[in-house]
Amino acid sequence: MDVAVLLFGPAAAAAGSSMVTVRTGTNPTVGSLAPLLCDACPAIAPMLPSLRFALNGEFAHPEAIVRQGDEVALIGLVSGG
Questions:
Q1: Residue 76 domain-assigned (yes or no)
Q2: What would the pLDDT profile of 49-81 be if each residue is shown by its tens digit?
Q3: What is the Cα–Cα distance from 43 to 13, expressed in whole angstroms?
Q4: What DSSP element (H or E) covers 4?
Q5: Cα 42 to Cα 36: distance, rounded to the nearest angstrom
Q6: CA-CA distance, 32 to 56, in Å (whole number)?
Q7: C-alpha to C-alpha distance for 65 and 32, rounded to whole angstroms
Q8: 3-state SS, one letter per residue, for 38-78
Q9: What is the CATH number of the domain that holds 13?
Q10: Structural domains of the chain, count
Q11: What count of other Cβ atoms lies within 10 Å of the Cβ of residue 61?
């Protein structure tokens, strides 16, 4: 299955795109996407420890299953006041 991962801020700048598509096996988990993203876009690999995955608009645990049509995004740390 192909999974499109939306990128924002520094991750999008490093990738040169607001989206990276990765090919997964069956029943991929959110956690299984990280190494695929590193292969598809090595420039974001150093940033991954400071990014969180979101699945359908909510932060997701690494064990969460990604289904066809789900929205997957990498969200950077945000601070504010």
A1: no
A2: 999 999 999 999 999 999 999 999 999 876 555
A3: 9
A4: strand 2-6
A5: 10
A6: 17
A7: 10
A8: HHHCHHHHHHHHHEEEEECCEECCCCCECCCCCCEEEEECC
A9: 3.10.20.30
A10: 1
A11: 10
